[in-house]
Amino acid sequence: MGVQALGFIETRSLTASIEASDVMTKTADVWVVGTEKIGSGLVNVVIQGDVDAVTAAVKAGEAVAKEIGEVYAVNVIPRPHDDIAKILPSI
């Protein structure tokens, strides 16, 4: 996989997750790996890029998502193990 970092934002709103995705990709040099509708209105967005870019993008995405809906969880994983790719959502 060779990913330097993965970032996650989980919201309780599809609209908030879309807005967060837009802001994250405009804030830093990251791209969306995929999304996952979890249930009960929860939507998880996964991004990847270098550690600093993913960290900045997740912070920006979290801020905008909180304005629109509820942010359930955020996380950044620097240097994820290659096997993580097996469980990531795909677009």
UniProtKB/TrEMBL annotation:
Q: Give the PROSITE patterns listed for this entry.
A: BMC_2
What the entry lists under Pfam families is as follows: BMC
Keywords per UniProt: Bacterial microcompartment
User: Key word rRNA-binding present in the record?
Assistant: no
**Under the cellular component aspect of Gene Ontology, which terms does the record hold?**
bacterial microcompartment
Residue stretches making up the BMC domain: 5-89
Question: Where is the protein situated, by its record's location annotation?
Answer: Bacterial microcompartment
Q: Which family does it belong to?
A: Belongs to the bacterial microcompartments protein family.
Q: Does the keyword Metal-binding apply?
A: no
List the InterPro entries.
BMC_dom, BMC_shell, CcmK-like_sf, CcmK/CsoS1_BMC
Lineage of the organism: Bacteria, Bacillati, Bacillota, Clostridia, Eubacteriales
Protein name, per record: BMC domain-containing protein
Origin organism of this chain?
A: Hominilimicola fabiformis
